Amino acid sequence: MLSRPKPGESEVDLLRFQSQFLATGAAPAVQLVKKGSRGGGNTNLDQPLLQDHRDVVTLDNLPDSPPALVPAPPKRARPSPGCPLPEHEDPEERLNRHDQHITAVLTKIIERDTSSVAVNLPVPSGVAFPPVFHRSQERQGKSATSGKRSIFAQEIAAKRTSETSVPPVREVSTPDPPDGAASCEALTPREQGSQLPWGSCGFQGPHLVTGKGLGSKNAEQEAQTIHEENIAKLHAMAPEEILREQQQLLAQLDPSLVAFLRSPRHTHEQEGEKTTEEQRPGGPSVEVTGEEPIVPTFASEPRQEEDLDPRAPALALPVTPDKEWVHMDTVELEKLHWTQDLPPLRKKRTQERMQARFNLQGELLAPDVDLPTHLGLHHHGEEAERAGYSLQELFHLTRSQVSQQRALALHVLAQVISRAQAGEFGDRLVGSVLRLLLDAGFLFLLRFSLDDRVDGVIAAAVQALRALLVAPGDEELLDSTFSWYRGALVFPLMPSQEDEDDEDEDEEPPAEKIKRKSPEQGNRPPSDLARHDVIKGLLATNLLPRLRYLLEVTCPAPSVVLDILAVLIRLARHSLESATRVLECPRLIETVVREFLPTSWYPMRAGPAPSLHRVPCAAAMKLLRVLASAGRNIAARLLSSFDLRSRLSRFLAEAPQEMALPLEEAEALSSEAFRLWAVAASYGQSAELYRELYPVLMRALQAVPEELSTQPARPLSMQRIASLLTLLAQLTLATSSTTPEPSSDSAGASVSATPSSITWTQVSGLQPLVEPCLRQTLKLLPRPEMWQALGPVPTACLLFLDAYYQAWSQQPSLCPGDWLQDMERLSESLLLPLLHTPTLGSLWDSLGSCSPLCNPQFCVRAPEALPSLVSLGSTGGRLSLSLAGSASPFPFLTALLCLFNTLARIHKGLCDQLAAILAAPGLQNYFLQCLAPMAAPHFTPFSAWALRHEYHLQYLALILAQKAATVQPDLAINTALHHSLVLALLSRLLPGSEHLAHELLLSCVFHLEFLPERASGGLEAADFSDRLSLGNNKDSGCGRGALLAQACQDLPSIRSCYLTHCSLARASLLASQASYRGELQRVPGLLLPVPKEPLLPTDWPFLPLIHLYHQAADTSLGLPPADTIGTALRALQWVLVLESWRPQALWAVPPAARLARLMCVFLVDSELFRETPVQHLVATLLARLCQPQVLLDLKLDCPLPGLASFPDLYASFLEHFEAVSYGDHLFGALVLLPLQRRFSVTLRLALFGEHVGALRALGLPLTQLPVSLECYTEPPEDNLALLQLYFRALVTGALCPRWCPVLYAVAMAHVNSFIFSQDPKSSEETKAARRSMLQKTWLLADEGLRHHLLHYKLPNSALPEGFELYPQLPPLRQQYLQQLTSGMLQNGVSKA
């Protein structure tokens, strides 16, 4: 048995198997059958092959009649796609009807005569191979039927053709038609059929049968004979028969065969087309019809043209397609539409929104801008006439397979984002570009692009990532303000708003809340995180390891390195968590330190560097400084793990001019090194470097005067000097001998209290070097241009002197007289003369124009600002006349006030002299502007940053005023103004300023000297005002003047109460105190808390009352809070002081909110409101709320701060009143106040519907009603349900004048107005209720009530009943009543 071939066997093995098989003579398992033609049946394998002698083959032996076709298989021709078979005719029957025997066609087959064919030998050539042909060369005589032959084969065939003397058949063309004869191509089928026998388009000669293979003698004769026979047959047929036969023939043939038959005619006609068209007077034109022409269509007419609309104009192409072009054998016109001229650009303005388009530089193009096409801005399909690319098209291009296109798209998107964040688009765009891109997934597209293999795409992706994350100007702003007062402390750039999904968190179980609060535990996807926080979403995509790989392995270009470092700096500014992740990323910081902060490098020349690797980079030093600012632990790890001490020594030991770096880069690197050291020194770390680098610091400090005298001043040099002075200030504070108090708090326990290694003797020589620098800068104060060029240098000098004297005063081993004498010397020689200079007054005058508090437009959120991507960008934050502008007086004046406060605190004798600075008119005007009623600035990241610095100036000025008022109370001026500003500032302070709020509560808010009204007739004025407004003579013992006097005496107790109830978070307070007091060992970090809202609410004076209410509502406590009466009494006293003397402090609290807070006093328990002092205070505050000018602003329907629903509060208030009031008049007055007619009917329905029993306790006399009775009776009530409740309460006796006179009069007025109303617009239900109520009134048995209801006239609180009565009914009412009663009598109804 023969084996089968196996894999791996060669051809030799296969041939051996074949020979063995043939030798055995076995029958094959498979027979190969050659299938014949479709009509010839199967081939007989057993029949021997015919001998072919290539002679004449005769078929005389064939029968004359055709053989039977049965049982041969039926013929089924494949129909043409364009000509389907008729449905009513069977193809088999039709084929049998038209089939002819082979004898009718093949009677004689003659062998081709080749005797006359010339034999040509190859032409000798001197080259071994034919010359190389390029595509750009024009090929002549290319065969139209070349098919898929290679270019080389086509050239060989063309060369052979040119060598022969006999021209090819395809070059023979038919004679041109005579003039005036129309081409067959331009005629309809019907016209062609009518002209076939006679027209000029007749058949002058054969086209398919040429006789080329016959002998030379009879070739033309045989071809002509065949041609004449064909013409005779055609002449004998009608045109309709010719068309029908043609359609049937085309339907039976294969379309590929038809195309093959048409191709010779196509080539022939193509060559003669130009001559024909030139002879036509109208030029070339093609008319396409819906019918099939009689003659075969040429291949020069594309198949697509047969389907076009005849009414459509011919496609005008800029070039004529040539069939010689590569891959242009078939012209597809619909694919060549893009080669046409662009549509005309619409010039008219329209109100429709048009798609934004950008050029390759990211600039927004106007809709009607007309740019040339060679700029490459028209390669898009939509709106082809407009230049530029839309965001969608750029987004699509970023997914291209061509790397250059991906890089170009990312580069353009980066430019678009940069321009959008810079505010260049303004209001020309609808919506936000950044929001649109982020919603489309641009963030993750950038992350995917970072994983690309092409360096250009990676560079463009990093550039786009920097443009997205790093807002323009943010880093410059923070760097320029680093040397300000507390300028190193910044807010984290992370979203402050809660997730939108947390709005309904109360409905979720606690486990779900924990998952939402901690994304890592919930495994939230990056897309979910990025929707609320872009930075968190990016960190979840393993961005940091990829950036480390790019820096360490790929060694990108300098621009890419700077972009990556900028992105890392932005990630570190996000939060402490993000900074920790950057620090802990494997080998990331190690790579940055090794590659971009080397201790040795080759000298760098001026100009762009080819590479930043192994070259010091200021951005890398800044990254370390920002990381160290996040927390003291990170700073300690950086110093210990990456040997930053030696690198700081390396970069600070040399002056910038001596470094082998460009001067600007060297100065920036030196500035960042000073700042990094200053950040570490603010934690009390790296102090030992001071001894090592003391000569370097002295040399740099001695060179400052020379650098200051250089004109014009270089900004980088000024920043370096300011950074040096800031470092010296922190090192000076480190010499303080104050040790931190032990604390059980976690924040305090984690901080080590190691003593500083710097002693006072090591820094005592710095002041003689810094003070001359300050004097030199103050000489430039009268010259604004030169003063502004100094930047933060004067501010840094003042802050150093402040730290110097603060540390000097805390040295226990030194004589106090030394520093006191030095302070006097400094004041007399420098500070006091400075106060009287006119240029300082101009700085005070410019406070209002640069204040973000007085100019809310500075803090408007930038158009592209997103809640999920925080930046400091704002619309007005970069102006010169703004807080962060070059002409801002805030940094210098804040530092000056800081120095004055330190000197006044240490040397009490200088307090009154230094306090003269508060008398500056510009400062007083600024305070008045801050207190004026205005719109609050928008709460944005930039406003939080700017307002924090502005609040520093206000706080320092107010503390200085408090010190001056304490030392010299008689000389204190504008104390009322200062106290008003203290109250306003207390409710504005942001997180991170807990120490400032605590100090204000301790010293200023409840400072007796800040209440001058107590000694200037304010008490008597309060009593006199009450008499004028109330018109009665109240007992002087309980008047408002006496209550205010008692409150002034109880100010210490009031302060203790508010210190207890306005307490801040202890950890935050300790951290803030350590930072402001200079306790370096207790500073946890330089990142402030996220500024979600101010530290204290606007209604902070009511906080004790709110706490009492919540404690009483918390049933889990069981016992009432201790000292409830004292707490409520102190809070009411302070609110009365503010209502009387500082009403602007409560402007932010609506009157309705104040009323709700007063109601809380009655809801605490059942006995508190009965206390006489509480009664007096609440009654006085209620009278203040009921003043006409305040009553107009009392709106109970608006949302109130801190209150979910006033109707709910009022319902609980009614329930409590019904339970424990016992007819208390003050309690009843508060119940009646919300029942005024202009308030919601829900409140009145709650009383008369659900708590009607409370009416018996509402015995408040009409004379004690705090508001006018008309407020309850006008306008008439229109709520039918309430009117029915009024009537029911009157009829049932639940409402009578004995125990509820006020509401009795109110109900009487509304019911009387309703029953006698004649409003024709009333509904039928209302009319029926009115008639029914009047009928019941007429039938009342109580004559008094019936008389009151029918004869009511007007409300009058002076009368005992509260209203006037008609002596007799008016005629109209009498007539209406008679009509109603007469109808009742006619119906048989009698009065009982």
Automatic annotation (TrEMBL):
Q: Where is the composition biased (Basic and acidic residues)?
A: 86-95, 266-280, 510-519
Q: Could you state one GO biological process linked to this protein?
A: transcription by RNA polymerase II
| Compositional bias per record (Pro residues), positions renumbered to this chain | 64-74
Region (Disordered), start-end ranges: 61-95, 157-194, 265-290, 496-529
Predominant subcellular localization, coarse grouping: nucleus
Q: Where located? A: Nucleus
A Pfam cross-reference name: RPAP1_C
Name the InterPro entries on file.
ARM-type_fold, RPAP1/Rba50, RPAP1_C, RPAP1_N, TPR_RPAP1/MINIYO-like
Q: Pinpoint the RPAP1 N-terminal domain residues.
A: 224-263
Q: Which residues form the RPAP1 C-terminal domain?
A: 355-420
Bias-annotated ranges (Acidic residues): 497-509
Instruction: Outline the extent of the RPAP1/MINIYO-like TPR repeats domain.
Output: 1101-1321
Instruction: Write out the entry's keywords from A to Z.
Output: Nucleus, Transcription
Q: Which family does it belong to?
A: Belongs to the RPAP1 family.
What is the recorded name of this protein?
Answer: RNA polymerase II associated protein 1
Record gene name: RPAP1
